Amino acid sequence: MKNKSFASDNNSGVHPDILQSIIEANKGDAVGYGDDKYTKKAIKKFKEIFGEDTDVYFVFTGTGANIIGLKSITNTFNSIICAETAHINVDECGAPEIFTGCKLLPIPTKDGKINVEKIKCHIHDIGFEHHSQPKVVSITNTTELGTLYSCEEIKKISNYVHANNMYLHMDGARISNASASLKKGLKEITKDAGVDVLSFGGTKNGMMYGEAVLFFNKKLSENTKYFRKQSSQLCSKMRFISAQFIKFFENDLWLKNATHSNKMAKLLEEKLKDIPEITITQKVESNSVFAIIPQKYIKKLQEKYFFYMWDENKSEVRWMTSYDTEEKDIDNFVSAIKNIIA
After folding, report:
1. For the residues 174-184, what does the mean pLDDT come to?
2. Helix (H) or strand (E) holding 280
3. Helix, strand, coil shares, percent, the chain, to 5
4. For the chain, which domains are there?
5. How far is residue 308's CA from residue 144's CA, in Å, rounded to a whole number?
6. CA–CA distance, 81 with 66 (Å, rounded to integer)
7. Could you give the angle at the alpha carbon of 206 between the alpha carbons of 7 and 12, nearest 5°?
8. What is the mean pLDDT of residues 162-184?
9. Mind listing the pLDDT tens digit for each residue in 5-55?
10. What angle do CA 7, 9, 14 make, to 5 degrees?
């Protein structure tokens, strides 16, 4: 790409330190399927952060993490409650339904977040054999609209969920960005807040590929190793995922990367405020900016910069920043916008 992409943090390159960790792990042989020193060390690090009772499963993709986590805590007669904007509802090609056999119950939301009052609409007819039985509430932090759940909001949801004999799953594809923005520890915004299963993302924050599924109650993961194999998410050369996570946590690289990408989004927001033709539509709380821009300018801008249309009916676009976005990238992008609008 000629200019820096603002389409997705998936488009950024691999952080040099993480790339080096893959090279180092490439020396010599290592036992396959996770019985290697790198995987053991990475799992140990996760346990240091989240607690010894945490069960860790490395996978290739975020979709893989979500379906394995959800499959482990549901039966085919269950349903999963989520925001209508949730990745599991919009961007996973029906994989959660296919793999779990569960019905998704999406909740309308303007900011990507759901709450207890909205969840209550789907909690009825428990035990009635004609209806799918709600078993999981799935939330995303940061949400697909870049907004954040606070610890208090998560606790309120988890308390209600657990009181109704359900589980709380969190899609944490950008959990690092949430932690950095909230200035709270990873454990504090997940396990301590009542999350039962976490899809922990690495790819969007400087890794080449690789996610982890974390269970904070080992009873929930009794069959997960089989589901991981069935879903083609068991990596034979797992050391190349594990080595990345070791470097990811070393010297808080994950936090530095996420803090920077969040900072670049705030910088973009600040510079866009001077342009009256652009309206920011969501709170900029992580590494994304959602904005309405007149349709006539979008294609011209896309000729120079790659980004996605979010809602064509509203002329709303999404601009993402990443760990390797630089201030000059923001300046050049905003200058391009101003030149096109002028």
Report:
1. 98
2. strand 279-280
3. 45, 15, 40
4. 16-252 (3.40.640.10), 253-341 (3.90.1150.10)
5. 13
6. 14
7. 30
8. 98
9. 999 999 999 999 999 999 999 999 999 999 999 999 999 999 999 999 999
10. 130
